[in-house]
């Protein structure tokens, strides 16, 4: 053991793990089973001071830094071969202030843990729809969820952040840095704590999936395009198309499904949803009053940990039913799917330059997701890329929240120059590069 590592262990309050040590293999696993990387050191941080210590150690030894919150990056960015993984998952502090309807949450929380704390007070903010996902990655990418048509994206509710810089300093984000964090990802530092606005939600909401036979998808989409344009903001809608929905009676049945969630008055919600529920001949209608926390976990089975996964996404004014039907018919595995969101309401009324996410015009966000077990995956990735290319003529852009291996410039557009200027100031040497990377200018600004 080097003297430097001995000193690190003495200064570090959390747990340091190296290859061969107990807990190392468990700590290096991430959600996407396609990645099996072996960091030289995993620093499981107890607090922001540990994050500072780990960053300084990695910089001193010129080791690449990977940052892990919930570990749900589709590219496995939370671990790297031979580098230092700064693991925030032990950092679980959360303080809710019901009087100001706000919360301060440590970066290691999952959405299940966050929602547990806020729902005790009947409060929530827009958050990820898979309960095991970390709040950090979702927030920094933009943050889509069931409440976004009523309360905006997660970043629209982000009021402050504390982060550790590339120099190992702990700072509170100023206005320009906060703008960049609202959609610019982990490019500017390691956020250790987020501060959000909260809103009265639940604890019981009206929601649940409705599944139609795939050959009724065109009818549903035609109805949805006209009906949703005038739907109240209280209605959020996720969508899914798959060959095998997570309902035993429908296993192996190609379906198109919607997951409506109504976060307003229940009686009004029943009336608003009635036309949708009467549409066509649903195979299953599971809409009912349920706890908001239960709604937040309804999509968990579609994102189970351990499977290999790859996706790409588009921002679409309309969904072409014939293309969608063809893509479902050729899904490479039973676990693969198309998944996305209906965009609109409050999320679309935010000024385009208010956050790094940029414009969110009414329409759809759609991901083509290949999931598979075992090694390989070239054919599955090829299906995603081919489908992505087929949808490209219909697309109007891309959201950074769902970037995979594409060039980040495809999502940021004209905002990239402003984001680059923030990067130049806070991370001119691209220390935080294991992410959808915004590269600094040659030489940076400091």
Automatic annotation (TrEMBL):
Start and end residues of each FAD-binding PCMH-type domain: 35-201
InterPro entries in the record: BBE, FAD-bd_PCMH, FAD-bd_PCMH-like_sf, FAD-bd_PCMH_sub1, FAD-bd_PCMH_sub2, FAD-linked_Oxidoreductase, Oxid_FAD_bind_N, Oxy_OxRdtase_FAD_BS
Coiled coil: none
Cofactors demanded by this protein: FAD
Keyword Oxidoreductase found: yes
UniProt keywords, alphabetically: FAD, Flavoprotein, Oxidoreductase
UniProt KW Flavoprotein keyword: yes
Gene3D superfamilies assigned to the protein according to its UniProt record, in alphabetical order: 3.30.465.10, 3.40.462.20, Uridine Diphospho-n-acetylenolpyruvylglucosamine Reductase, domain 2
Recorded family membership: Belongs to the oxygen-dependent FAD-linked oxidoreductase family.
Protein name (record): FAD-binding oxidoreductase
